[in-house]
Amino acid sequence: MTLLIKNVRILGGAQSFYSRFGLSRENITESEKLFDVFINRDRISAIGNFPNKRAATVLDGMGAYLSPGFIDVNTSSDHYFTLFDYPSQDDFLKQGVTTIMGGMRGSSLAPLLYGSLESIQKWTNDKNLNVNWHTVAEFLKAIDRRALGVNFGTMAGYGTIRRAITGNSLRSLTKNEVSVFSGLLEKAMQEGAFGLSTEIDHVHTKKIAYPEIKSLANITHNTHGVYAVSPSDFVPLSDSIIEATRLLKEFDISILANHFVPTKNKSVEYEKALMAIENLSDEANFHFDVCPFSTTLMPLHSFLPLWIQKDGQDSILPNIKDEWMFPRIVKDMPLIDEDNFVVAHAPGNDFLVGRTLRDIKEMYEVKDAREALLHFMVAMELRGAAFYKNIDEDLLRKAILSKRSLIASDAPSFDAAKRGIQLKSERTTDTFLKFLSLVEKEGIMPLDAAIRKITQIPAQKFGLSGRGEIKEGNFADLVCFRDANVKFTVVNGRVAVKDGAFQNIFAGHALRHI
Questions:
Q1: Are residues 286 and 305 in the same domain?
Q2: Against a cut of 0.90, is the pTM above it?
Q3: What is the pLDDT of residues 318-356, one digit of tens each?
Q4: What is the rounded distance in angstroms from the CA atom of residue 506 to the CA atom of residue 496?
Q5: Rounded to an integer, what distance in angstroms lies between the CA atom of residue 148 and that of residue 76?
Q6: Nearest Cα to 327, choosing from 306, 305, 345?
Q7: 248: domain CATH number?
């Protein structure tokens, strides 16, 4: 199978490409020189000008940009299980994303000691899900056997493994349990996991010993993996960053801070943490991911006071239902802008999707929006989520401009018809288009630097060999775009999206860390 892409301006090419044609990364965006790219099977075969070359499929870029396919370093299609029930994942493809990373926030679909998916229960109902794998190797083979629209790589989830060992206990692991955990992590890395992701850290719980984290981080470092950490709501952001940089200094480890976004209630903390990140040495392999929108998708329980969340999911609902605890919870909840709270997902109560918290307050005939939200949580059994506009936009732009920021949706691709009525977040459909718009139309940074931020840098971060650059011999993951609009997306040499429409092509691969 052959594909010829004609008349494109190449961004994100390998240095050898620019040198061969007397160009540089910096001037290619102004250059009127157009190139052709010839693809044989799943690889880029030749780059140049081929007026007489033939191919089974020919696409004319008509002067638009051609870049490596974008890499979303933090997605949740595995958490919502849509990786399996919506394998096209075309929300990503339509915005030029060809590779997604999962297993973040401490929760992954493998390794599973007992076949339980309990660690993803806060995203989806795990009781009706059946799996036929335990190890990372078995999980990736299960993906190999299925059609998939995008390339997918996974982390090993700290919470997934730990819960299998200790249940929901937040105590420190025994020496023997640490040994078991270490063996499981090392095996997961050898079988293809790209690193260790954490959300429950010892600062959060005050019960997990640093030596436990240190031993696991050491394995991640020795296997050349990424250590991903989600800053906790339970501690100041700057403390979370200090904790992560402590590991960075001890092991020279590669660190990714997930969903590092500036909420309005933590603007001062965020700016302090961002400054600490910017002051790291140039050699420090530290990045964070951010989404370019002022609205976040939040699970309902995240609006509860922190003290009620610390004991875990199982204790939250009984506490809310307790007559004595209810008013105390209301009093300790943060004030919520009821008009900027919109129900995105309400399983079993689809008629509430799209309603604001003001609407819910009127439905329950109460004066306090927080009280109404608690009643809603009980009715939903803590399931569901809301869009909430709570981001400091000035700080968000500063974060996007950081040399250490990567772009991520932190969202799933899904079929709303299959999952009941559910509003799709902008993060699901437009994260990378929004970023391109900020770059192309508002000029917030040079286009070549922006493309490296969503292609080459994440590919190098995760060791995605043969991806992230347009180079002869590399995999043909490509996106053609102009004016923040995607003309077509190519995954492993096959045209997956053309003129905004998914082509029913499932060319994605399960990726393995080498």
A1: no
A2: yes
A3: 999 999 999 999 999 989 999 999 998 887 788 888 999
A4: 7
A5: 15
A6: 305
A7: 3.20.20.140
